[in-house]
Design goal:
two-stranded antiparallel ribbon; Arginase, Chain A; globular; 11 helices; alpha/beta; 8-stranded parallel β-sheet
């Protein structure tokens, strides 16, 4: 399997400050996982390049772009919880540009899959507002590039980060070309992601939220993926599946209270890989979002990579049964999105 890989030293240089969970060591943990899995792939490497202004303007207002660029080379706080060092803005430009290029590589057939380990993350950045450690919305920039350049007509985005992907939802909420799905802990930051948030205007019915209660585990995760995510994507029939892959839903993560394990992430990746083979020529890509326990991050990425390389998919029969509240939530969303026949 051809694996798209884009790297840059500046991804380690973004430093929000001592004690901040979104720390440079996260890249080291991800790279450890990749080095172990690399012999399983035919790696197609490319140098990172910064996103161009026109690429950012597809998903962000000029006001947000100007605000971020005004911090170039400086240390400070872009918003209440997004702190930067002198290299951060350049790292963010590289992260967005790399996400775009990875999506292009997969869509063109240069790579079958890929996983971008870049910082800062992006899925909380809205069209007009930075937030949640995020400057530019990497996955949104990649998706918009494929759509506006005619490389894809329909894109499915499934965000399994523990926090709702409010930025991606905000940017594509009225766009029927993008099916956005988010499973996330609720209640939790940023407070969005209710079941009733289903899109608006032409995008009505193309925004599927799957809020999970604190304490939800691999069984809940597997149920959400198999009974809601997979049928929704199959019904949508996208040209590519993109995953904002945060690993802060892991039981060891310090920022939330979900109890997923690396086996749960591997199971989800395996189902999505099979689905991509069925509906979009196998085209699927991953972009790193959260995940703040270094060992959990390394082990979870490693499990996903092994599964993507053809390793056995963990059997969901070994997971605890999904909770009553999860089953009810899935049933409501299956009905709301007419998935019973999908």
């Amino acid at each position: 399997m051809r694996f798209g890989r884009i790297t840059h030293p500046l991804f380690r240089e973004h430093d929000p400050g001592r004690g901040h969970p979104e720390r440079p060591e996260r890249i080291g943990a991800a790279e450890q996982a990749f080095r172990k899995a690399a012999p399983l792939f035919d790696v197609v490497a490319r140098a990172a390049r910064p996103a161009e202004l026109a690429e950012l303007q597809r998903v962000h207002t000029q006001g947000l772009i100007d605000h971020v660029l005004s911090f170039r080379g400086r240390r400070g706080s872009i918003d209440a919880d997004t702190h930067i060092s002198p290299a951060s803005v350049d790292a963010a430009l590289l992260a967005a540009g790399s996400a775009i290029d990875l999506a292009r590589m997969i869509m063109s057939g240069e790579a079958d899959t890929g996983f971008l380990f870049a910082r800062p993350p992006g899925h909380h950045a809205e069209r007009a507002q930075t937030m949640g450690f995020c400057l530019f919305n990497n996955i949104a920039a990649a998706s918009a590039a494929l759509l506006e350049e005619g490389l894809a007509k329909r894109i499915a985005i499934y965000d399994w980060d523990v926090h709702h992907g409010n930025g991606v939802q905000d940017i594509f909420y009225a766009d029927p070309r993008v099916l956005f799905i988010s499973s996330h802990q609720s209640p939790l930051y940023p407070g969005t992601g209710a079941e009733e948030e289903t899109g608006e205007g032409p995008g009505a019915g193309y925004n599927l939220n799957l809020p999970l209660s604190p304490g939800s585990h691999d069984g809940d995760f597997a149920a959400a993926v198999s009974r809601a995510v997979v049928p929704a994507i199959r019904k949508f029939a996208p040209d590519i599946i993109l995953i904002p892959a945060g690993f802060d839903a892991h039981a060891a993560d310090p920022l939330a209270q979900l109890e997923f394990t690396e086996r749960g992430f591997a199971h989800a990746a395996g189902l999505l890989k099979s689905l991509a083979g069925e509906c979009c020529g196998g085209r699927i890509g991953f972009i790193l979002e959260g995940g703040y326990d270094l060992k959990a991050l390394r082990d979870s990425i490693g499990a996903v990579l092994k599964t993507m390389a053809g390793g056995a998919i963990p059997d969901a029969a070994g997971f605890p049964a999904a909770s009553h509240s999860t089953n009810l939530m899935i049933a409501r969303q299956r009905s709301r999105f007419n998935l019973d026949g999908a």
